[in-house]
Design brief:
Helices cover 32% and strands 25% of the residues. It is an alpha/beta fold. Strand 2 and strand 3 (61-68) form a beta hairpin. The termini are far apart. The relative contact order is 0.22.
């Protein structure tokens, strides 16, 4: 069932005038999670989402844990640490104008597959002009320094950004 999925036809209308480019930085995971909750509710007109299925290709579907109108929400683990591919990301960008991604992990040699998937996700969202709101363990510029350097970085922080196209942020 695709009850929570948006439609590609309404995607462009939803994008117009939604959020100016804004970056907010928070000092902890809970605060970042609350900010993502608030952003989801703001963009959905105050409605909570539910799970849905998005058709991908050749009869495959992708389970979306939370969707409402043109907004969907995933954890980093659900979208980047499992067998999800570029076609899945393209399907999401065709159905949703905004993707909320929680808990982006630090990525190094031990998380090379997750790093490749994350980069592919960002590329697909950028090309389709789909908005990305995310929280991360570190500032975006330090996500690829690797897990072994996590202790040196700014751990436990998060951030939320909005705007047209893809913007990412963290603290």
């Amino acid at each position: 069932e695709n009850a929570g999925a948006g439609s590609k036809g309404g995607k462009e209308e939803e994008k117009k005038g939604r959020m100016a480019e804004v970056k907010e930085t928070f000092k902890g995971r809970r605060e970042a999670a609350r900010a993502l909750d608030a952003a989801f509710l703001r963009l959905s007109g105050g409605r909570r989402g539910g799970p849905c299925q998005v058709p991908v290709m050749m009869g495959r579907t992708l389970r979306v844990p939370e969707a409402c109108g043109g907004i969907c929400r995933f954890s980093f683990e659900e979208l980047c640490a499992t067998d999800v591919f570029a076609a899945d990301y393209q399907a999401l960008s065709g159905y949703f104008h905004t993707l909320v991604l929680e808990g982006v992990a630090c990525m190094g040699a031990r998380r090379a597959n997750e790093a490749r998937r994350f980069i592919t996700l960002v590329d697909v969202l950028y090309e389709s002009k789909t908005r990305l709101l995310m929280s991360a363990e570190r500032p975006i510029g330090n996500l690829f320094l690797g897990e072994e350097r996590k202790e040196e970085g700014n751990t436990g922080s998060g951030g939320v950004v909005g705007g047209s196209g893809v913007q990412v942020g963290s603290g």
